[in-house]
Specification:
The chain is built from 4 helices and no strands. The protein has 120 residues and is mainly alpha-helical. The chain has a domain of 36 residues. The two termini are 35 Å apart.
């Protein structure tokens, strides 16, 4: 079902406006960041990028690289209770050297179906 077929689609009518390119909204974003953002902002969920694909997107493997977990601020232990979804599933050892925590994206690509080739 498309958006126009939703029962309340025509209840509010807004004037048609030309789209503003994402490049204009976030001018400092890299082409890889813009591409990933566009893949997230897809109305139909079946066409939207999956979390697995997103984590393998070139955005995460181009400069500037994401910060190592040891460089991130550590929240206060009791600042916020868990959201009721149970205990945290993953624990991280902040003493692990950066070299030991990196993953080569080429070794993961075979796990994602339909992963586009960004390097051609």
């Amino acid at each position: 079902m498309g958006m126009t077929e939703l029962p309340d689609y025509n209840k509010i009518v807004f004037p048609e406006m030309p789209p503003i390119p994402l490049e204009n909204i976030v001018p400092d974003a890299s082409p890889e960041a813009i591409d990933l953002l566009k893949r997230f902002l897809v109305y139909h969920s079946k066409e939207r990028i999956s979390a697995k694909e997103a984590l393998l997107h070139p955005y995460f493997f181009t400069e500037p690289l994401p910060a190592h977990h040891s460089e991130l601020p550590i929240p206060a232990r009791n600042a916020r209770k868990t959201s009721g979804r149970g205990p945290l599933r993953h624990t991280f050892d902040i003493d692990v050297p950066l070299e030991k925590s990196l993953v080569n994206p080429a070794s993961l690509v075979h796990n994602v179906v339909g992963m586009p080739d960004f390097h051609t």
